[in-house]
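FAQ: What does a multi-protein file look like?

Like this. Sequence, then tokens, then the next protein.
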Amino acid sequence: MDRAPEAGVAVPAAPAWVRRPASLVRAVTAELVGRIVDGVHQPGTALPPEPVLGDNFGVSRTVVREAVKILQEKGLVQVRQGAGTIVTAPAMWDMLDEMILSASIAQDDGLVILDDLVVTRRLLESDMANVAARVADSDTVDRLRDLVDTMDTLVDDTQAYGDQDRAFHDTIMRASGNRIARAVVRALESQVVNTARYMGQTERALCVASNRGHRRICERIAAGDPAGAAEAMFTHITEAWLVRRGGPEDPGRLRR
């Protein structure tokens, strides 16, 4: 019969691998992704053999083997006969993959990854705003106006403002009908929307300035002006990021 610990007696914490996550394979995969992205295992070099990795993580070779298969699917490694499991060049990685993108952002000493993410989002959302200005019906325009008006009342509540901000952009993406572009934007945003490095400063003045950009986009869509809507979206996303971005790094990747 188990005995309860006596009062005042410290109970040591269980070792980390005893408190195992639901999926050992996912945990090992995430650790290996982080090591590869961080350069612990360099492109062109072989990962340690399965027995070594198994001992390192305290898991079976089967778990390691499954994790390596997932790394292959993500484009991070290639298994070569006689050479082992070789780490691939970053150009081969699936940057839309949740683990890879998250690890890349975490390991990015500058803001290169986030700058590229904003450039990609800007390109796709500008095009979707162009289409939305051509096809949006009165219900969509009314929805956008309501969202802009609501955001004007939420500039002192940055969290609530952010929720409406995302709803505004999503309404335009939905109106465009481009499900693939919307899925890419949503996948990218999901990795960074709660990170301090992407969200940057959040204060009343910035919300006020941001919503002026939203209103310009709304006006151009309501006017049926595709080029104007695209330009307004391009400018809004660029300016909003430059304010949040801060830092001494040159934002040259954002220039067009």
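And here is the next protein:
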Amino acid sequence: MLILTRKRDGVIQIGEDVVVRVMRTGRGSVKIGIEAPSHVKILRGELGPAHPEPVAAEGAGAVMFQH
């Protein structure tokens, strides 16, 4: 897991197509905006599976979690 600190209007680029922008910060909350192509599925954590199933990834001993 990568943990970053960003101020308001801060931007995080993920790959070439996804941008996460800090819109507002407040007491105990952060409002973010996500720009992504329409084919990229974006779900809030509570809407995804409760326990992602591990699947084997290519490479020696690598494990990924599939949602």
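Q: Is there any per-entry metadata?
A: Some entries carry free-text notes. For the entry above: Residues 6 and 22 are 7 Å apart (CA to CA).
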